[in-house]
Amino acid sequence: MACRKCLLAVVLYGIAAGFSYADSAADIMVGNFAQQSLSGWEQKQFAGKTHYQFVVLKQGRSVLEANSKKSASGLFKKVHIDLNKTPYLNWSWKIDQPLKGLNERSKEGDDYSARVYVVKSQPVFFWKTKALNYVWSSSQAQFSQWDNAYTSQAKMLAVRGKDSTIQHWYTEKRNLKQDFKKYFGENVDEIDVVAVMTDTDNSQQTTSAWYGNIYFSAD
């Protein structure tokens, strides 16, 4: 299996196509799923195609639903975010079921019911490109951290773990400045890509996830 889900390939895919630049607003909306908008988002297919669509919850709120059946494809958006102004990544999510029997630290187990990730790209020195993957882990404890099975330039962080409640909405907030410093030992001033992916191609299983708005904030 090629290094097709190590996430760095997503950045290099079409990297020269141009980025959108975030303004200086206190909150910067990147994924406005409540308004059923995928403006600026692109899909990258790895193995099969995860189906992404908008659904309306009973409370009347729209969210992005991902349905994966033995598939792996993600949505990503190229956007420059100044982490000195808005270092916090915010999102909400839930899953319907975990994936069974996976060793997520191996290439064969590189499947997740839900993941949100950010990338700091280096188009010229591509080997320096770095990714933080915030995952809903099916086999690891919450707050676990490990290198991606394909590359140490992608760090996996179990924001939710094997004991987290399924079919329950969680709201998350991560300080990217602190996380890049903690896990890569570097001061990172901006990121270039935000992505979501629900994938089950390795496990050949089926799962669904739901994602709320994704935005950056100053605090």
Brief characterization of the structure:
With 219 residues, this protein is mainly beta. Helices cover 6% and strands 45% of the residues.
How would you characterize the overall build of this protein?
It is a single chain. This protein is mostly beta strands. The chain has one domain: Jelly Rolls, CATH 2.60.120. Helix content is 6%, strand content 45%. It is built from two helices and 15 strands. The protein has helices spanning 8-12, 176-184; strands at residues 20-21, 27-31, 41-47, 51-56, 62-69, 72-82, 88-95, 112-120, 130-136, 145-147, 154-160, 170-175, 190-199, 206-211, 214-217. The strands form two sheets. Strands 1, 3, 6, 8, 9, 10, 11 and 13 form an eight-stranded mixed sheet that branches. Strands 2, 4, 5, 7, 12, 14 and 15 form a seven-stranded antiparallel sheet that branches. A hairpin with a 6-residue loop joins strand 10 and strand 11 (154-160). The protein is globular, with a radius of gyration of 16 Å. The protein starts with 7 loop residues before the first helix and ends with a strand.
- Summarize the amount of helix as a percent range: under 10%
Strand content: over 45%
Total DSSP helices: 2
Question: What's the name of the CATH homologous superfamily?
Answer: Galactose-binding domain-like
Q: What's the multimeric state?
A: single chain
- Using the 3D structure, state the CATH architecture: Sandwich
- Indicate how many domains the architecture comprises: 1
Biggest sheet overview = 8 strands, mixed
The structural class is mainly beta
CATH topology: Jelly Rolls
Report the CATH C-level class.
Answer: Mainly Beta
Task: Let me know the number of strands.
Answer: 15
Query: Unreliable segments (pLDDT under 50, ≥5 consecutive)?
Result: 11-17
Order of helices and strands: HEEEEEEEEEEEEHEEE
Radius of gyration: 16 Å
What is the overall silhouette? globular
Gap between N and C termini? 40 Å
If you average the pLDDT, what whole number results? 90
